[in-house]
Amino acid sequence: MNDFAITILGLPASLTVHDIFSGIYGMSSVSHRWEFPGPLSSSPKFHFYIPPFEPGCTHQAQFYHRDRLVPSGLPVCRLGTNYTGQLEFSSDGMVLRAGKLYEEYKASLSYTVQQGFASKELASVLALDILTDDGSRDATIGRVLRPSICTNKDHYRNAFEVAWRRRNPLLPSGRTFYPYANALEQQHIIDCGLAPIPVFPHVRLILMQSGAFPAVATYAQMELLKAPPSGRATGIPGYDRLQRGMVAMLPGLTKEGVSMRNTSIDTP
Question: Is the model's pTM score more than 0.85?
Answer without folding.
Answer: no
